């Protein structure tokens, strides 16, 4: 029952965290102090490394995470979150920060689909979804070049019909070991 233990451990820790008022050192507002929204990867190595490498503290930025730091659909939840950060939460700049050695790099759909089937998703369910217009191979496909992927996400954001003119959209790649940033797109130059 490892999973039950994990939840219990988290709830026990949380109770003590609140009782000891440890939350007080993290108090801030919903508005980002540094007026930026960051799209980055959900990779575990970036959890603490990315904010430290960018000199970000609690309250400094809106951070959106997904697999690969990808904007895969111009009207999906990632783009909606970026637009809300800009229009309602005072963000003035966007940063797309992917990373080297990403699990989405070279990801092919077939092994993911095989894993789904091994865990109980039926061929019938997959066939029904494909018949409904879901292209699994495209939807689950990663990218071949992290640099090209960053450029694509930056262009999708920058050229979105609801993106206000003049919002800088930067693209970077971070080293998940050292935190070194490589600039791919300087949003001030575009």
Secondary structure elements and pairings:
Elements: H1 2-19, E1 36-41, H2 46-53, E2 61-66, H3 77-88, E3 93-99, H4 109-118, H5 123-131, H6 136-139, H7 146-158, E4 169-174, E5 181-185
Parallel strand pairs: 1-2, 1-3, 3-4
Antiparallel strand pairs: 4-5
In short:
The chain is of the alpha/beta class.
Describe this structure in words.
By secondary structure, the chain is α/β, with parallel strands linked by helices. It folds into two domains: about 30-105 and about 145-185, Beta-carbonic Anhydrase, Chain A; about 110-140, no CATH class. About 40% of the residues lie in helices and about 15% in strands. The chain is built from seven helices and five strands; from the N terminus they run H-E-H-E-H-E-H-H-H-H-E-E. Strands 2-1-3-4-5 form a five-stranded mixed sheet, with helices on both faces. Strand 1 (about 35-40), helix 2 (about 45-55) and strand 2 form a beta-alpha-beta unit. The radius of gyration is 19 Å and the shape is globular. The relative contact order is 0.16. The mean pLDDT is about 95.
| Biggest sheet layout | 5 strands, mixed
Give the CATH level 1 class of the largest domain: Alpha Beta
CATH architecture group name of the largest domain: 3-Layer(aba) Sandwich
Which of globular, elongated, flat, extended, rod-shaped describes the shape? globular
Report the count of strand segments.
5
């Amino acid at each position: 029952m490892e999973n039950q233990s994990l939840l219990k451990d988290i709830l026990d820790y949380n109770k003590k965290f609140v009782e000891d008022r440890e939350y007080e050192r993290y108090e801030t507002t919903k508005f980002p102090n540094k007026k930026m929204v960051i799209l980055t990867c959900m990779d575990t190595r970036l959890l603490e490394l990315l904010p430290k490498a960018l000199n970000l503290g609690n309250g400094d930025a809106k951070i959106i995470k997904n697999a690969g730091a990808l904007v895969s659909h111009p009207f999906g939840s990632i783009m909606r979150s970026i637009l809300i950060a800009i229009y309602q939460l005072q963000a003035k700049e966007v940063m797309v920060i992917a990373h080297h050695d990403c699990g989405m790099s070279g990801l092919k759909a077939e092994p993911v689909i095989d894993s789904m089937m091994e865990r109980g998703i039926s061929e019938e369910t997959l066939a029904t979804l494909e018949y409904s217009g879901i292209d699994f191979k495209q939807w689950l496909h990663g990218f071949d070049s992290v640099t090209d992927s960053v450029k694509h996400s930056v262009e999708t954001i920058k050229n979105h019909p609801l993106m206000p003119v003049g919002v800088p959209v930067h693209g970077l790649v971070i080293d998940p070991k050292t935190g070194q940033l490589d600039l791919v797109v300087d949003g001030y130059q575009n």
